[in-house]
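The protein record passed on for reference:
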Amino acid sequence: MGLACSAGDPEDDFELSKPAMEIDARVTDRLDAMNEAVKTQIRILILGASECGKSTVIKQMKILHSGGFTEEERGEEIKVIRDNTVASIQQLITGCRELEYKLEHKFEVLADQIMDIKDASSVKDDEISHIENLWKNSRMIKRAEEHRSLFYLLDSYKYFLDRIRNTFKPDYKASDQDILRARVTTLGIRETKFLIG
């Protein structure tokens, strides 16, 4: 037995492989372009404990390198900012109770009403007044504030409580500073891309 092989006409092979060569050239060019783009990318993994500033770094990068926040993003942050404001006064009230600082009689009912607020987006004008009154006038709230290291309190509590009237206006627009100070629990992995240069 024997084995025979024929190479065929080289012209036929060239004609058949020309479309394949064009596709190969396009794919190669695309891969080269992607490789060049990857060479200019810098990847940063930010790890840390809760509330150590990981999200704040990303927000600062967005302000510095991506032209800041869009109107849509600013609108989305309003709920977070209002939630932080209500949570701040609730945490101070809880701090008073944990430290056994009895609120002044005139503020007891107000404090209970404030603690009943579940959704900051539905806060009424009179509740805003109650929060502001308690924040500005209660000696026990001020005393709890002095001992804030003994209970959980958002780090930007003062910033938000001092601006409560502005924050709850119907036409309120979140500033960069408001967004930087806003806190929301970040779960999972988030990818954010910035164009630098």
About this structure: The radius of gyration is 30 Å.
